[in-house]
Write a structure and sequence with these properties.
This protein folds into 2 domains: 233 residues, 3-Layer(aba) Sandwich (Aspartate Aminotransferase, domain 2), CATH 3.40.640.10; 91 residues, Aspartate Aminotransferase, domain 1, CATH 3.90.1150.10. The protein is 42% helix and 17% strand. The chain has 15 helices and 13 strands. The chain has a 7-stranded mixed β-sheet, sandwiched between helices. A hairpin with a 4-residue loop joins strand 12 and strand 13. Helix 1 crosses helix 12, helix 6 runs parallel beside helix 8 and helix 13 packs parallel to helix 15. The protein is globular, with a radius of gyration of 21 Å. The structure holds pyridoxal-5'-phosphate.
Length: 348
Amino acid sequence: MTDSHLIDLRSDTVTKPSPEMRKAMAEAEVGDDVFAGDPTVNRLQETVASLLGKEAAIFVPSGSMANSTAIRALTQPGDEIILHADSHAYHYEAGSPSAVSGCSVRLLPGPRGLFTADDVRAAVRPDDSHFPHSSLIIVENTHNVGGGTVWPIDRIPPIREAASEFGLRMHLDGARLMNACVATGHSAAEYAQYFDTVSICFSKGLGAPVGSTVAGSAETIRRVHRFRKMFGGGMRQAGIIAAGALYALEHNITRLADDHANAKLLAEALADLPGVSIDPDTVETNIVYFDVDAGKQAAETLCKTLLQRGVWMLPLGSQRVRAVTHLDVSREDLEQAITVLRGVFEGV
Ligand SMILES: *Cc1c(COP(=O)(O)O)cnc(C)c1O
């Protein structure tokens, strides 16, 4: 199935469309989506809106554009966005909140990507002409840099309450929302109900090649639509890729549980290795971070050694390594990766 025997654990974005998904894409009915005339895109948008319990949804090329169009739609230049210091929207979207929405950011601390309503209250600016205008809170679920952290659903209503107190809107960066749903048994709509806008990605663990959506009220999605055009994200016969996303929603959600089980197995094996620090209890979904003891070897050196032995992981920081499980990594692949890790840490 893969072009080599490399076990690629760098990210869940590396998945390739399966033959069945490619078939669905090849056979997709298409039209010009900029004229709202692509039936497959329309079907995807309706499917996602109903999955999330929102009035409307819009297909966009990437998770970054989902976040940037939603942020732009919910803010004005000069506003301030409240979000966790480790957020994707802050670190990995090329400065988009400031560059394309003209917003400053107020960063919240908190273990593993989570924060509290009190953190939000402490971060909201007083209503005074000296300050930027606090207007939006972003929650990331699951939290990527936090370690694939699931937001316990009962932690969200108090944040919504704080938001309402100060008239703030809320965006859910749900690139991996379906992982949170599979891990907790809560539906996507249960999470989405607290948010004005919700993004989800099809090209992460869901295994489609391209695409994300933003969902929200009809009025908000009309604004998002305008900004999608402004940012160059209007696509024409996009049904070809929307069909991959629809296929992913139909076939690849429940199987995320396999990725979570594989990640747990990997975390438990890593915890037994000398020179590795990890708490397997913190691995709730498909993302595994671990630290190699300083003084022994650097993360980058370890990743080079692993790659020579067919296992691809990502060094993030001098001692930190990331491994992400996904639908192109089978249980056998994962067991092989563990064998390789044991060889590197114990054998040599
Ligand atoms: C991957 C990701 C995104 C979107 O990234 P793209 O590369 O633009 O698709 C957004 N938020 C989170 C939390 C992510 O992990």
